[in-house]
Amino acid sequence: MTTASPLLTLETVSRTFTLHLRGGLRLPVVSGVSFSVLPGECVVLGGPSGAGKSSILKMVYGNYRCDGGRILLRDGAETVDVARAEPRRILRLRRDVMGYVSQFLRVIPRVPALDIVTEAARETGVAAEEARRRAERLLALLNVPERLWSLPPATFSGGEQQRVNIARGLAAERPVLLLDEPTASLDARNRAVVVDLVAEKKAQGVAVLGIFHDEDVRDAVADRIVDVTRFAGARAA
Ligand SMILES: Nc1ncnc2c1ncn2[C@@H]1O[C@H](COP(=O)(O)OP(=O)(O)OP(=O)(O)O)[C@@H](O)[C@H]1O
């Protein structure tokens, strides 16, 4: 079931980078960023390279500090402002509320691919057997050959690693999902799988906020595109 109240709301969020190695040069990237994402909705950040799409996603995930504004994330009955939350609170939000899938796989060395994905599902409280079943399903859907499942992904091809990464990101059950170009180097067949998996998440009521450079993927998953150039920092500074 979906409800009308957003899971994620950005209110007049701004960020300026200060380049200390360039004599403190200030680079206003975004300002006045305001939008929200409903349960079951996929909002895609649009705009040219350098517009600030990744920076917005990183602020939502708590990787980048906000200079101003609020990032309101619903955690059950509570609403938390990520922009002001303590680091420990942000870690809890990452465990329970928001998942993040980038285009790169960063994992502990020597852990087999299947365990990486199973463990991701376990993190959100899925029972061991179900987590394993889910991991196997995702790896199979994403065309990761079964002979690789028991191996650590360090030696996998770039595309294989990326698909393990997507399986890991989607195995968990969190109400908010942030996708930072997860399909960047996938072939058409696997891009289509990701489109289906995002649709599955939406049907489960997950609020998805993503960046997709591939226009076909973007058009297939987006309910709404938020053009980030509207929030260009330089204009508003
Ligand atoms: N940590 C940082 N320090 C300094 N400048 C940064 C930092 N992160 C991003 N920027 C700058 O902010 C601007 C926006 O970058 P961002 O990666 O958010 O853009 P983007 O829209 O996601 O671009 P792309 O589509 O190319 O990934 C760029 O000019 C970039 O150089």
From TrEMBL:
SMART domains: AAA (SM00382)
Matching Gene3D superfamilies: P-loop containing nucleotide triphosphate hydrolases
Record domain ABC transporter: where: 8-236
Source superkingdom: Bacteria
Keyword Magnesium: no
Signal peptide (from-to): none
UniProt keyword list: ATP-binding, Lyase, Nucleotide-binding
Any single Pfam family the record assigns to this protein: ABC_tran
Annotated SUPFAM superfamilies: P-loop containing nucleoside triphosphate hydrolases
InterPro entries given in the database record: AAA+_ATPase, ABC_transporter-like_ATP-bd, ABC_transporter-like_CS, ABC_transpr_LolD-like, CP_lyase_PhnL, P-loop_NTPase
Molecular function via GO: lyase activity
Family: Belongs to the ABC transporter superfamily.
Name the UniProt record assigns to this protein: Phosphonate C-P lyase system protein PhnL
Protein source organism: Chelatococcus albus
